[in-house]
Design brief:
The protein is an all-alpha fold. It has 21 helices and three strands. It has helices spanning 29-55, 57-64, 70-86, 88-102, 104-122, 128-131, 134-150, 153-164, 170-198, 201-208, 210-214, 216-228, 234-242, 252-257, 260-291, 296-324, 326-350, 353-377, 387-403, 406-417, 422-440, and strands spanning 19-21, 24-26, 455-456. Strands 1-2-3 form a three-stranded mixed β-sheet, with no helix packed on it. A hairpin with a 2-residue loop joins strand 1 and strand 2. Helix 1 (29-55) packs antiparallel against helix 8, helix 1 crosses helix 15 (260-291) and helix 4 (88-102) runs parallel beside helix 7 (134-150).
Length: 459
């Protein structure tokens, strides 16, 4: 993207998309919408894979990890799921600084290619019965490719939207990133639900499980096309202009040691956001089936319904963060999880369809406090010069240690203790840490991003 502070005479094919006057950036609404769509689609694709993987975890356990123990199969499947999160910080350390060096748009196009390739590859892997131990090893390799690529995805997408958005609407526009998350998850989980209902167990195990993963190929091509059509954000263009033609490379150490306070806040906020997110959207479908022996189809439909409810509320909650601030909304989510996790899980354990739906809906609406506020709150923790890199590192370290491991850790805790309330206790602990982080953070609603000029809509 260009501004009038970038060297003059743009070509007709690259007309200015924002202007700078008196140190104010005036955005182009049409291009802001395009940027939001392109960023959200990548997030949708990432979570399409998560939805498929979580909802088909039991089947994947049979295909790749044969065992007489269903719990061991599920643990092995979630182990491969969690392994992808171990390499996410490495991806963040590569793609984040690269995004601050060569631009957000180029890196987001690259992560899109890698995500699609990794997901598509899973659909082509032979079963354990065909090639033995090579099957789970290939599954692990594909998951590692996915994890490495997603290390640059969320931080880049949220940075991209935040730097395009006018200051007074950053919360609303950023909330569409998580709208894409929910849409992708519903798409993946919904497809598995339909297949589970229509296919026999044998058909699903032998070939049906491959279909959702193979769909990632065409989705990736569409997403790549949309991202390649975008131009750079006004904030990044201004940074390039300040450095003229020789943009200095920011050392990785500066992105960490120079931003350590913001990084700690980022990790605390991401912890509560992702522990609760993965608990509800990734772990609960298997918890309902494996631990509570709940009817599989009904359990899947309940979770899908909750996600649809979250999608409806999401943009309104995002607009609310612009009106009253990010901190009150995030704080309300932390307080809600601290006070209501146990009652909600007791409702879910009661077992009736109404009780399960009410308990899950309560957790889903609390989660919206995070999904609506975080895409705009997290980029505002860091200055433009290191935003992509520092956010990628803080976000992915926290997700790797706490978020992506949630299904594995909670499954292991339930197995070791026999206490089916462990999911509630885990969410409550996360809420305490998140509450401390939101207490220490500075309000960013309606204010320019650090290191960037004020951004406004045209009159």
């Amino acid at each position: 993207m260009e501004t009038n502070s970038v060297p003059p005479s743009p070509s007709p094919a690259h007309s200015p998309t924002a202007t700078r006057a008196s140190d104010v950036t005036v955005t182009d609404p049409a291009l802001v919408r395009r940027a939001v769509k392109a960023a959200a689609l990548g997030n949708a694709m990432e979570w399409f894979d998560f939805g498929v993987y979580s909802y088909i975890a039991v089947t994947l356990g049979k295909v790749f990890f044969p065992s007489g123990n269903p719990t061991a199969q599920l643990l092995s499947t979630f182990g491969a799921f969690a392994a992808a999160f171990l390499v996410r910080p490495l991806g963040g350390m590569v793609f984040g600084p690269l995004g601050d060096r060569i631009g957000r748009q180029k890196v987001l196009a690259l992560t899109m290619i890698m995500m699609a390739a990794g997901t598509f590859a899973i659909g082509l892997i032979p079963s354990y019965g065909s090639i033995g131990v090579g099957a789970p090893l290939l599954l692990l390799a594909a998951r590692l490719v996915q994890g490495f690529s997603t290390g640059g995805e969320y931080a880049g997408a949220s940075t991209f939207i935040a730097e395009y958005a006018p200051d007074r609407r950053r919360g609303f526009l950023g909330s569409w990133l998580e709208f894409g998350t929910l849409a992708g998850y519903i798409g993946g989980a919904g497809l598995v639900t339909v297949m589970t209902a229509l296919l026999s167990t044998d058909d699903l195990t032998s070939w049906g499980w491959r279909i959702p993963f193979l769909i990632a190929g065409p989705m990736g091509i569409i997403g790549l096309y949309l991202r390649l059509r975008l131009e750079e954000t006004p904030a990044f263009a201004a940074e390039v202009e300040k450095a003229e033609a020789n943009r200095p490379k920011v050392p990785l150490r500066e992105m960490v040691t120079g931003q350590w306070k913001a990084l700690l806040l980022c990790m605390g906020l991401v912890l509560v956001f992702n522990v609760t997110d993965y608990m509800l959207l990734s772990y609960m479908p298997s918890y309902l089936t494996s631990e509570l022996k709940y009817d599989e189809t009904h359990g899947l439909l309940v979770v899908l319904g909750v996600m649809a409810l979250m999608m409806i509320v999401q943009p309104f909650a995002g607009a609310l963060t612009d009106r009253i601030g990010r901190r009150p909304v995030i704080a309300a989510g932390c307080a809600g999880f601290l006070l209501l996790s146990v009652p909600a899980l007791l409702l879910i354990r009661q077992g009736s369809l109404v009780a399960v739906a009410l308990g899950m809906a309560a957790l889903g609406l609390l989660l919206v406090c995070f999904t609506a506020a975080m895409p705009s709150a997290l980029p505002a923790l860091f200055p433009t010069r290191v935003r992509y890199g520092s956010l990628s590192i803080g976000f992915n370290v926290s997700v790797s240690l706490f978020g992506g491991t949630t299904p594995l850790v909670v499954t292991a805790l339930v197995g070791a203790t026999g206490d089916l309330m462990m999911p509630a206790y885990y969410m409550m602990a996360a809420a305490v840490i998140g509450g401390f982080a939101v207490w220490r953070m500075t309000e960013s609603a309606g204010r320019p991003l650090p290191g960037s000029a004020p951004s406004v809509e045209p009159r």
